[in-house]
């Protein structure tokens, strides 16, 4: 797994509705990266400790717009989505402006071909 720094841009509700362990709490965190100068959603991530989930629910302003680290298997080059993401922590040492994904400037498949 690799670490990816992302910007917290929102939350989803818990999938289990009005019952269950996470009833009334944040379900997942929506994170994004800056792509070509625009903040773009990358994925929804969960896996945080219960105490963090409760804190997110009670104090969302502590998280929105802040940088977080996400564990993930990889990042899809086409959609930019993180594959199998899991929450790690907030990053107080990094600014959101630093969470930039640089797209490769490849126009089509032929530009990637190599003559052998």
Structural notes for this entry:
By secondary structure, the protein is mainly β. The chain is built from one helix and eight strands, in the order E-E-E-H-E-E-E-E-E. It has one helix spanning 50-58, and strands at 2-13, 26-35, 38-45, 67-72, 74-75, 82-83, 86-91, 100-101. Strands 1, 2, 3, 4, 7 and 8 form a six-stranded mixed beta sheet that branches. Strands 5-6 form a two-stranded antiparallel sheet. A hairpin with a 2-residue loop joins strand 2 (26-35) and strand 3 (38-45). The radius of gyration is 17 Å and the shape is globular. The termini are far apart.
Describe the secondary structure blueprint for this structure:
Elements: E1 2-13, E2 26-35, E3 38-45, H1 50-58, E4 67-72, E5 74-75, E6 82-83, E7 86-91, E8 100-101
Parallel strand pairs: 2-8
Antiparallel strand pairs: 1-2, 1-4, 2-3, 4-7, 5-6
